[in-house]
């Protein structure tokens, strides 16, 4: 237990010292029982432009993954659009181990390096990006098991919070950490606030929100101010609690409704940034909370939800559709998923029947018609 507590403290220290991520990842890797780990953001629009930290020194291995095998990872294709922040995913959760072993990813990328399996903890999932902490198991360690899952479930939430909302903070400045460049890509509004609600950083979504809903929320004197008196009091109390740490607000924060108009509600979630060794900064620590605000409304369903709920496609069939969109042909899909081409064709036949289509191009159009409404940035 002491080992885990110390490790959690080290994880939160990365908020202050992001250069310590490789060392901390190495410790996490040892704790969960893996050979290597990568903290990586994968961008659906520009897959090769990924941001990451690694627990090892092997530039060629990383280069090979980014340039060739990232898109050939069968776990990525099998779980595309079906993951949520906080999930821990083992290979066995999304596909048969035998199929995985036959995939190009396993035979060309893992096997020559005496690696056999990958497990991931999902830290963040948006319309266009997914941030994961991936662990690679060696041949000696064997396939990822339930013990590894249990340890990831313990450590994952702390890594998730430190990596997703962490900032490089010190007594003088607020600098942007490894994920800050994604802030403007997120559709929701994000504010980083000090204990007096002063805005230290905001994304484009926040600026758009302020322009569109001045009757609900505004910046007055550099501070976030809710228009409704009751909301303002709740927000001010929650911000004070955020400065006291996770024990006050909880690790998932507190949700606040800022207002509603024309059937659409503006809902914010306030999450404390004060935890672990960061408290040692005391009054010098400027940012105490992250405020995430989004508009809740009836949106068009995302592609995966549409394929699953409206057409009744199975997880494997959805993976095949994703393969058609991303890879193009049956041979390529078969190689990535570790399936025989005939099996992929059989899945396609079922997909055509369920969706009322007859060609792969029609499936692409079907997915495009249900494209996510979330902003993709510039």
Automatic annotation (TrEMBL):
A Pfam family assignment: GerE
GO biological process: regulation of DNA-templated transcription
Domain HTH luxR-type: 310-367
GO molecular function annotation: DNA binding
InterPro entries linked to this entry: Sig_transdc_resp-reg_C-effctor, Tscrpt_reg_LuxR_C, WH-like_DNA-bd_sf
Entry keywords, A to Z: DNA-binding, Transcription, Transcription regulation
Keyword Transcription regulation in annotation: yes
Entries under SMART domains matching the protein: HTH_LUXR (SM00421)
Signal peptide: none
Keyword Translocase: no
Protein name as catalogued: HTH luxR-type domain-containing protein
């Amino acid at each position: 237990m002491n080992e885990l507590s110390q490790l959690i403290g080290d994880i939160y220290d990365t908020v202050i010292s992001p250069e310590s991520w490789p060392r901390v990842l190495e410790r996490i890797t040892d704790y969960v029982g893996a050979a290597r780990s990568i903290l990586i953001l994968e961008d659906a629009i520009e897959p090769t432009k990924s941001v990451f930290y690694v627990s090892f020194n092997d530039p060629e291995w990383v280069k090979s993954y980014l340039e060739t095998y990232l898109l050939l990872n069968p776990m990525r294709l099998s779980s595309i659009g079906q993951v949520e922040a906080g999930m821990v995913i083992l290979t066995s959760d999304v596909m048969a181990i035998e199929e995985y072993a036959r995939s190009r990813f396993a035979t060309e990328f893992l096997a020559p390096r005496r690696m056999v399996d990958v497990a991931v903890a999902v830290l963040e999932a948006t319309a266009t990006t997914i941030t994961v902490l991936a662990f690679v198991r060696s041949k000696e360690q064997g396939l990822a098991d339930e013990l590894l899952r249990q340890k990831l479930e313990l450590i994952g939430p702390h890594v998730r919070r430190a990596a997703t909302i962490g900032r490089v903070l010190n007594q003088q400045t607020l600098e942007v950490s490894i994920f800050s460049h994604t802030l403007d890509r997120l559709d929701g509004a994000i504010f980083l606030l000090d204990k007096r609600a002063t805005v230290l950083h905001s994304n484009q979504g926040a600026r758009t929100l302020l322009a569109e809903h001045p009757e609900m929320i505004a910046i007055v004197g550099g501070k976030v101010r809710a228009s409704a008196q009751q909301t303002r009091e709740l927000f001010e109390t929650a911000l004070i609690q955020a400065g006291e740490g996770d024990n006050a607000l909880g690790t998932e924060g507190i949700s606040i409704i800022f207002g509603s108009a024309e059937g659409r509600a503006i809902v914010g979630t306030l999450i404390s940034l004060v935890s672990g060794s960061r408290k040692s900064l005391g009054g010098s620590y400027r940012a105490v909370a992250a405020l995430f605000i989004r508009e809740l409304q009836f949106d068009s369903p995302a592609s995966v939800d549409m394929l699953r709920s409206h057409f009744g496609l199975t997880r494997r069939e959805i993976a095949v559709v994703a393969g058609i969109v991303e890879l193009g042909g049956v041979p390529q899909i078969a190689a990535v998923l570790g399936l025989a081409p005939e099996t992929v064709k059989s899945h396609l036949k079922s997909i055509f029947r369920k969706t009322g289509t007859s060609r792969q191009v029609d499936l692409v159009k079907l997915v495009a018609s249900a494209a996510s409404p979330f902003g993709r940035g510039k």
